Amino acid sequence: MKKLVALLITFALSSCASYSVTEAEIQDYLDSRAAFERTVGIKGLAYANVKFSDIKVGIGRVADDRVSLDAKSQAKLMISGQRQQEVAIDVSFSAVPYYDQDEGAIFLNDLEVESLELTPDELTSFASKQLLSSVVEMVGQLILTQPVYRLDEEDTKQSMLKTAKPELLIKNHSLVVQM
């Protein structure tokens, strides 16, 4: 009888379990993992060295079903025969969040560039524009392939949700993982 009661309580708790992930929690998660430095292009011909270290998160602010990410990066463009250019890149993306049960993490897909600002805004060559396009694409691919939040297996509630097939909703500028 005790086992049946315990089983019913566990089932009742798991059937209505949910966990809200706030913008601040996602921001903290990304801040601890988002910094990177990469090189794009062909060294000696045309390439960009990119330092990416600042991202700001908004949930349900661009659209009710999307997460927005404002990314800042610095790029050094080196093109054979030209002087080195330093460019600040501010790009805003929006994407649809989804929960990957195998990973126990929230990822983004359906990425869209909402805005792009370059400083200085005038580039001296077609090659510079192509490199910057590659930089924006690289940042976008990083966003799509890395989780924006991973459920904590040490937390009982999150651990229960991780093993179930939860639904992911956006409510009150939070991602809600619920069964």
From TrEMBL:
<feature type="signal peptide">
    <location>
        <begin position="1"/>
        <end position="17"/>
    </location>
</feature>
<dbReference type="InterPro" id="IPR010835">
    <property type="entry name" value="DUF1439"/>
</dbReference>
<dbReference type="Pfam" id="PF07273">
    <property type="entry name" value="DUF1439"/>
</dbReference>
<keyword id="KW-0732">Signal</keyword>
<protein>
    <recommendedName>
        <fullName>DUF1439 domain-containing protein</fullName>
    </recommendedName>
</protein>
